Every structure is written in C-alpha cells, then in structure tokens.
Recover the amino acids of this structure.
C-alpha cells in the first residue's frame, strides 16, 4: 500500500485495541475471539466472507465496517483514513506461515 | 452509513503512567516515602561498607587490628549499641516522616472511598458527612495541589491500593477502612495497580488517577452529581434497549435509568473513562463490544460472563450506547 506504514499500523492496532476481538499475530495480549483470527490475512480471499480482499476495501472495513456491511458485529473504530491504511498495511504483512 | 464517532486517546494517555515509576514522586506524600526509601538505602549501604571493611581487615589486615576486631568490646559497640541507636533513630525519623499519610481527615479535604473488588475498583466521592455523592469505577479524579483522603476497604479478599507516584501502598482489608492521603502537585495522570495478590486476574487490576486544576475539578465533580442526558443518537437508543433487555442492569447501574445493579462497576459515565476492564484496554466502541461479547478471553476469570448471545447489530448498538454514557 503506497504511503502506508505497516509498523505504524501495528502500533495503532495496540492503541485502539483490535485484539479485544481478534487474535492478531504480533499482538501478545489479548487474543480476542469475537471476530476471526487474522493470522494469514494477507492471503485471505474475502473480507468478512463478503468483499474482495483489496486495499481500499480493507482500509474502509477496519475503520467503518458498518458502512460496508450493516449488520456486522464490528463497530466503527476510532481511526482516521491514513491510520486505517496503516492498519491495512500491517494486516497485509500477515502471511499464513 | 454511520461514521466513526469515537474520539481516541493514545494508549499512553488511556493507560497513563503505566508502568508506574516507583521512585519518581509527583506529590508531597509520595515524596516523603521516596525520601525515606533513599535514606534507608543509604544507611544500609554505609553499614554494608563498614561490615565489609571490617571483614577485610579481619581476614587480611595487620595482626594488631585483627586482635582488636576479635575483642569483646567491639561486639558490644558494633553489634549492640550501634544498631540500637541507629535503628531507633531511623524508626523515629521514618514514623515522623510518614505519620501525616494516615492521619484522620481534618474535615476540609476531599474524601474518596475506594473499594477493592475481584478485580476492579469501586469508587465513590463522599461529602463532608461521609455520604456518597458520585459513584464511578476504575478511575479517580482529584484536584491537583490539595491533599485527598482515600478511605480504602475491600469487598472480598485483601487487595492493596498503590499509586506509586502519589502515595505508598495501603492494604484494602475486608471489614476495615484504612486511610491514606495522596496529593498530586500538578495536573496529570498517574497509573495505579493492585499490589497484593488477589486471585487470577490480579495482574489485570489497574486504575488511573487523574489530577485536574482545582477549579476544573470542582466543576467536574458538580457536573457528575446529576445523571447524564439520555442518548439522542438512534443507534445508541437501540443500544439502550439491548442493555435493558439483556439484563445488564442486574449487575450494573446507570444513574437516571432502571439499571441499578451493584455487583459490577457503575456504568453511568463509562464512555468518559479512559480505559476499560480496570485500566487494561483503551476505551472505544470496538473494545467495548469485544469486552461485552467475550471478556473472559481478555481478562480470564473476571466476574462478567461472555455475552455471546448478542447478535452483531445488538453488539454494535450496545457499544454505541455505552460509549454515549459520558
């Protein structure tokens, strides 16, 4: 993702607490199980089983999942658009190994 | 389309002052303890040096000194008289330095009652007569530059109330009220932690003390005396219905509503807290939803069951409602 920083994304994931719902490689605690584990997310085919896993959709999803999928259990997260792109960039570093 | 509405503190701000620096006092009472610690440390260092010097002389020194070190006179002076004098002096010094920490309230200090629970802190601000005027949890607000009396106790097992930059540790004992004074010289946020092992989630029992300018504090406390206005946002209103229908009010109170449970933390202003789960998570709609649905994964053994019966939309609206309680 041009202009986005995976390292910043990882720090943001800690600051907003994504791991309260998701197990995320690189986050030691917590390892929430409300939503899916994000291990290997870079290779996932779909976001939330519904949307193509491509950067623009992911950046919108992590910031405001409700805009894409009203009815999802994922609340809007307090991220700006550039921050959401950083978070997405980190998620794209999570390969299956 | 619902825009992201959370305002966010950085994690550093949310969990301010963590880990608390124990040797960096931010007020008079913590300063006394810090001074005492350094004096004791220095004295112990001096005595250690003297003992090692004597040991060195006894082993390798000239014969004449070795004989004197082996005499009975030195035992009486160095082994009996010296410790009695020095330890008595240190005891008197220490008690005089710290006696003000636990004095009875004078009547014009702010009084805050903090009750340790497994594994969170019940907080109540008291008036001069000792009546609870404002209830809260896991976060304490104080005026800077004024001494504040904390009346601490426990509802279950022994906990220990420790805000290292503001005061020493004090045990929270069931059936007993202990007093400790704190003062923050300047506004700021100060991390605290339960310092007595109290069960499974002991390590996840933190709190934050926030010191404000006195005038700001007075208006803050006054604003807290009335319940917050009910939500106006549609999603939050739906969340309020979910809150009622799911029975959250059996354990949690929200002033001004039917929810009046006392088992868990008061949620009247939960959205205004900096952290969630007793000082362990940032507080926003995402972490609120994660906590409600699956707090056992985040803080294993805590007394709140997982609410996995809630649907996605219910969880989203409930978290919007909780966040609106400011």
């Amino acid at each position: 993702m041009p202009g986005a920083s995976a390292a910043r994304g990882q720090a943001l994931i800690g600051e907003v607490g994504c791991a309260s719902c998701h197990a995320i490689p690189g986050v030691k605690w917590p390892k929430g199980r409300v939503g899916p584990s994000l291990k290997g997310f870079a290779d996932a085919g779909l976001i939330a089983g519904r949307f193509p896993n491509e950067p623009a959709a992911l950046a919108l999803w992590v910031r405001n999942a409700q805009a894409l999928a009203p009815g999802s259990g994922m609340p809007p997260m307090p991220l700006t658009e550039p921050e959401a792109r950083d978070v997405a960039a980190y998620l794209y570093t999570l390969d299956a190994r | 389309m619902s825009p992201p509405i959370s305002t966010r503190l950085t994690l550093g701000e949310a969990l301010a002052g963590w880990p608390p620096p124990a040797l960096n006092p931010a007020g008079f009472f913590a300063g006394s303890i810090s001074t005492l610690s350094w004096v004791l440390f220095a004295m112990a260092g001096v005595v250690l040096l003297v003992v090692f010097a004597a040991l060195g002389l006894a082993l390798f020194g000239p014969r004449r000194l070795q004989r004197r070190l082996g005499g009975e006179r030195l035992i009486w002076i160095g082994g009996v008289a010296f410790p009695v004098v020095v330890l008595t002096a240190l005891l008197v010094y220490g008690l005089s330095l710290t006696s003000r920490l636990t004095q009875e309230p004078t009547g014009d200090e702010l009084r805050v009652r903090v009750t340790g629970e497994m594994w969170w802190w019940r907080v109540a601000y008291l008036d001069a007569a000792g009546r609870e005027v404002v209830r809260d949890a896991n976060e304490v607000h104080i005026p800077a530059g004024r001494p504040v009396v904390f009346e601490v106790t426990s509802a279950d097992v022994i906990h220990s109330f420790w805000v290292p930059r503001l005061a020493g540790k004090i045990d929270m004992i069931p059936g007993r009220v202990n007093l400790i004074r704190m003062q923050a010289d300047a506004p700021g946020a100060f991390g605290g932690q339960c310092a007595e092992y109290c069960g499974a989630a002991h390590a996840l029992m933190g709190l934050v003390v926030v010191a404000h300018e006195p005038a700001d504090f007075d208006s803050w406390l006054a604003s807290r005396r009335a319940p917050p206005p009910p939500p106006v946002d549609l999603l939050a209103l739906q969340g309020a219905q979910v809150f009622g229908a799911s029975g959250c009010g059996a354990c949690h109170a929200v002033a001004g509503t039917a929810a009046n449970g006392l088992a868990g933390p008061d949620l009247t202003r939960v959205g205004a807290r900096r952290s969630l789960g007793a000082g362990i998570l940032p507080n926003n709609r995402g972490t609120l939803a994660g906590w409600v649905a699956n707090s056992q994964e985040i803080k294993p053994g805590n007394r709140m069951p997982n609410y996995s019966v809630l649907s996605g939309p219910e969880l989203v609206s409930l978290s919007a409602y909780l966040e609106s309680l400011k």
User: Anything to note?
Assistant: Helices of chain A lie at 6-16, 55-68, 81-91. The first helix of chain A runs from residue 6 to 16. Residues 6-91 of chain A form a domain with the Cytochrome Bc1 Complex; Chain D, domain 2 fold (CATH 1.10.760.10). Chain A has one domain: 6-91.
